[in-house]
Amino acid sequence: MSRTEAAELRGKAGEDAVCGLLEEKGSEIIARNYRVKGGEIDIIALDGEFIVFVEVKTRKFNAFDDGTAAMTKAKMRRIINASERFVEDNPRYKEYYRRFDTAYVTVTTDKYPQVLDIEYYKADFTAMNL
């Protein structure tokens, strides 16, 4: 298995786990891996009166970094811009409040990774703090 394939398996394991967590808490997943030119959103969910845009950072156990360094202001801007496009393309969500969450997932280094930990941050960033 190549490094790229292993990274994709880790990423999918992390996103699947976060979707499960959100669903357990009553959210409805409405889209995954939404891509537009200049941006991507890992998970889009409905949580009450909020449409939630979730960035998932998955790392191996004992990795050099925990993923927080990858959440730059530029990355946040791309997510916010992609969210604007999503709402433009799906006007039925226009009346929802928007929330930007981040999930940091730690997985095992196994061939088929298992989730060890999820740190989930509601309203982790807004357009106002960029």
**DSSP helical segment count:** 2
How many angstroms does the end-to-end distance come to? 39 Å
Number of strands: 5
What portion of residues is helical?
Answer: 25-40%
Q: Beta-strand level of the residues, as a percent range? A: 35-45%
Task: Explain this structure.
The chain is of the alpha+beta class and 130 residues long. Helix content is 30%, strand content 39%. The protein has helices spanning 3-24, 73-89; strands at 28-36, 39-47, 50-60, 97-107, 115-125. The protein has a five-stranded mixed beta sheet.
Task: Please sum up the structure shown.
This protein is α+β, with helices and mostly antiparallel strands. It is built from 2 helices and 5 strands; from the N terminus they run αβββαββ.
Name the features.
130 residues; alpha+beta; 5-stranded mixed β-sheet; 2 helices; 5 strands; globular
Task: Lay out the secondary structure.
Elements: H1 3-24, E1 28-36, E2 39-47, E3 50-60, H2 73-89, E4 97-107, E5 115-125
Parallel strand pairs: 3-4
Antiparallel strand pairs: 1-2, 2-3, 4-5
